[in-house]
Amino acid sequence: MRGYGGTVRKGVRRLAAYTLVLGIALGLTLVAGPSVGTADAASVCAGRPTRTVGFATGELRLYRTRAYVCALAVAKRTGPPRPMKVSLQPRGGRPAVNEGRYARQTGPVTVHALNRCVRAGATVDGRSTATGWILC
User: Fold this and answer.
1) Which of 39, 101, 108, 128 could form a disulfide with 81 if both were Cys (CB 3.0 to 4.6 A apart)?
2) Which residues, including other chains, have CB under 8 Å from residue 6's CB and lie 6 or more apart?
């Protein structure tokens, strides 16, 4: 009968430990908020942020993986739908373009750019920006 008593005590200790860990996690969530650090919203582009080019009415965001580059244009202020355009061209290739009337962002456009430079451009509400050949 000695084995059963030890097993019960282990179960009680384990339950107490789980309750303690859960209580600490709940307390930290209440004190620090849902996330301890600040983070931007997840991007629709895969890869790591490579370059951000700001201009009067928005910004052009570029992301890169090993073989691909992705771009999107984001307006500084959300508002009624307005003309927006983003383009991305690998050197030696045709540009990928997304344009239309959007409230917040246009894109993503993705091109294969393994060992190639790319050129990107964006327009938000009549104001635009463009890069030269970058990410070579």
Assistant:
1) 101
2) none
State CA 124 to chain mean position distance. Answer: 20
Amino acid identity, position 50: T
E strands present in 5-135: 48-55, 58-64, 68-75, 82-90, 96-102, 105-112, 118-124, 127-130
> Measuring CA to CA, which residue among 43, 76, 50 is closest to residue 84?
76
Q: Is the dihedral of CA 104, 135, 46, 41 positive or negative?
A: negative
Predicted confidence (pLDDT) per residue in 15-43, tens digit: 666 665 555 655 544 444 444 444 555 67
Residue in the structure block whose two tokens are 């045709």: 94
Give the pLDDT confidence of 97-131 residue by residue, as tens digits.
999 999 999 999 999 999 999 999 999 999 999 99
Number of residues in the chain = 136
Cα–Cα distance measured from residue 28 to residue 35, given in angstroms and rounded to the nearest whole number: 9
Across the range 37-56, mean pLDDT stands at 82
